[in-house]
Amino acid sequence: MRPLPWPPAPIRTERLVLREPEARDRAAFVELLASTEVNTYLGGPKPRDEIEREMPGAPSRSPGVFAVDRDGETIGQVLLRKEAGRLGRVGEQAELGYLFLPQAWGRGYATEACAAVLDWFTGVLPGEPVVLATQTANLPSMRLAAKLGFTEVERFEAFGADQWLGRWSPEPHRD
Q1: Three-state secondary structure of 65-118
Q2: What is the rounded CA–CA span in Å between residue 16 and residue 40?
Q3: Distance CA 2, CA 16 (A)
Q4: What is the mean pLDDT, run by run of 10 residues, along the chain of 175 residues?
Q5: If residue 33 lies in a helix (H) or strand (E), which one and from where to where?
Q6: Chain-centre distance of CA 66, in angstroms?
């Protein structure tokens, strides 16, 4: 995968702004990582004090990390990046990930945000596929993958649970 041009201009959708993380996002990012609900299918939450130590200032401004903002409030994050060796199956493809605060669930924000990031990705790296992995028990995530157009590549066991790996191949970007 070629490097992502970073940081991008904020991506605006009908209801959301996706942008590079800022210091004001720290509290929401800590909550995302410490939340039992958010991390049910991700191996469980990290201890809040550990997160506070690891993130003493602003959240990571790494390429591919988007803060998701709704009316000036951070409600989640979308990640689109290559992490060599993650799950041992991703290879040279970008992997889509997302975390949203429970109060933002069930409103279509994850679908809207992920679709906008995939559209941006198609514009900057035309033709590059994206993968998404989730536990098969995570039915909302499985539904989101289907809505976004991911198709199953394989199922496998990892982290003590059945996993699903899907692939998304972009259509040529049209302006």
Answers
A1: EEEEEECCEEEEEEEEECCCCHHHCCCCCEEEEEEECHHHCCCCHHHHHHHHHH
A2: 25
A3: 27
A4: 79 97 95 95 91 86 92 96 58 88 97 97 90 95 97 91 93 54
A5: helix 26-34
A6: 8
